[in-house]
Fold this protein.
Amino acid sequence: MSIIESLVLGIVQGLTEFLPVSSSGHLALLNLLFGSTKGSIDFTLLLHIGTLLATFIFFWRDIVDLLKSLLPRNKHMVGERKMVLALLVATAVTGPIGLILEPKLDALSTSLLALGIAYLCTTVILCAAEYFTGNKGARTPENMGVVRAAVVGLIQGIAVVPGISRSGSTIAGGMAIGLNREKATRFSFLLAIPIIAAGGLKDGIDALQGQVILPSTLVCVVGFLASAIAGYFAIRFMVNLVKKIKLYWFAGYTAILGVVLLALHALGIG
């Protein structure tokens, strides 16, 4: 993998991680285009860690408040503690699903048929969220409860499949359990922190055992920084955008992409 390819992949990862259009699907398509599918899942996870850094930087005040709420002297921070519980429950549900699906991710990320179907699934998820909820949810993440948090975690677990948007699915899931679009987006972005961190920890353990395939150090650094910088600006953009537009706009994009990929597969391309 060249530095230019790493830079492009990092920028695309950063921009699409927080837009409901599936960053993993876009990276899979670029890896196919560049012909660099070997170790692509490991490099994709590295880029996800770059966007994790962007999330930490953008939401650092929220993160500090959530951590402070766990201290015994801050028993008054009930809402924050409930948010921590919701994030942990959702992550606990996501984890096992991700581990079950992980062995199949390499095959799915190199199939235009699988990617096309997954993008159309994202389209359905986004449209359903807008159509059935109308962005009228009055619930907050702090009072969603364990069961509703588990539902969002289940949806996030399925979204490890390339082409199914993690942010789109969890935003839709949040809207389905009663959050409005803005609150669902905030919860979705905070929920990315523990699951990406867990994935990074697993990859670190695999690296110690010689099971991770990554390009050169310079290529990795370029991709990491590109994803972090692009990710930060994508978060700022998306947080403001969800106040103004509906998810149908993103659904239109994923629908077109899904149809194009299925057409290419039908023509025997890829």
Remarks:
- The radius of gyration is 18 Å.
- The chain has eleven helices and no strands.
- Residues 23 and 158 are 14 Å apart (CA to CA).
